[in-house]
Amino acid sequence: MAQPSLLERLGILADAAKYDASCASSGSIKRSSAGGKGMGSTDKGMGICHAYTPDGRCISLLKILLTNHCIFDCHYCINRKSSNVRRARFTPQEVADLTLNFYRRNYIEGLFLSSGIIKSASHTMEQLIETACILREEHDFRGYIHLKTIPEAEPDLVARAGLFADRVSINVELPTDAGLTRLAPDKSARQIEGAMGNLGHAIAEAKDAKKRFRHAPRFAPAGQSTQMIVGADGASDTDIVAKASVLYGSYDLRRVYYSAFSPIPDASAVLPLKRPPLIREHRLYQSDWLMRFYGFKPQEVMQAAEADGNLPLDIDPKLAWALKFRDYFPVDVNRATREQLLRVPGLGVRAVNQIIAARRHRTLRLDDVAKLTVSVKRIRPFICALDWRPTMLTDRADLRTLLAPKQTQLELFG
Ligand code: SF4
């Protein structure tokens, strides 16, 4: 059979990569300037996605698979060997050429490269490394490279990936070992976490060496990340939060990404027919922020969950926690510690920093706090200020109803 053209293969392999959320740019409505109306588009070119660098810049990446052939049979994956999907494959040289061509045209600032497993995990890993090696060593490519690494490959190869990539990632895939065994029978949780551990050590050693020797080689300077699929197995949000906290604690991960399971064409019968609500993924990202930036312990985030172990969908986990632990409030904006202020629903890190800076010069009134927040109505039950005490408001039985965002009717044909 004739090999599809380069453009056809780009279409197939960019589409196959879209299920990886590690650098997704979701949440935008579709707008296009096709037909000469307006300028710009939220629909990027084939295979181009946005990602955030460690210093907070938003960059465009060419996001593709080297191949969507795979010898594994993970039930949730459109590229599994039993799937009836159209297959394609690039050579490392072709991916390097595409990256350079896109880069020269100013379409992208880097590459996100993953792959199905061909022949063996080590063979595939060699091909991924070769692509990055061509870019870095033959073309002195200094753009961003994110390489998905294959935990089943030889440890030396996994470690070598970090010499060329800015970021490396290994997907843990599912929050529980039982879920992984059921839905990804060729994968092993021990192997995945073993590979993450090796990468974690190598990243820490390289950082240490860089402090002591100026010319020590770079090794994945943007660290490692992982992704968990939400809603493909029966794992609850508390299972997911527990797993994420173990991963952050054990492997010094930069990010855990949560990807709401989306039903795939020709899906395996063991998968649910419906995707979980996207808001569930959003609540998990919020809980992740609580642990990383707001000083919440994993157990505290889990306390925000409902009886079924899932975070409420109608309110964010910080508000859910505050409503359950009302005796913690109100906190005095003029005296409370930073940690106490960060617990107030509606007060973000920036607002807390501004409150702390402003109260050095004067005693704050409710109006002063209102200027620093989006909605003072939301925070009033949880704070005291010079001219404000919530009195009975904090303990009102209907406080949740008062503070929950109003439900809006979705557009039927939106
Ligand atoms: S190994 Fe990766 S590409 Fe292959 S079936 Fe599993 S998730 Fe899909």
Automatic annotation (TrEMBL):
Residue intervals of the Elp3/MiaA/NifB-like radical SAM core domain: 60-287
Highest rank taxon of the organism: Bacteria
Keywords, alphabetical: Iron, Iron-sulfur, Metal-binding, S-adenosyl-L-methionine
GO molecular-function term, one example from the UniProt record: catalytic activity
One Pfam family in the UniProt entry: Radical_SAM
Cofactor: [4Fe-4S] cluster
Protein name: Putative DNA modification/repair radical SAM protein
Species for this entry: Altericroceibacterium indicum
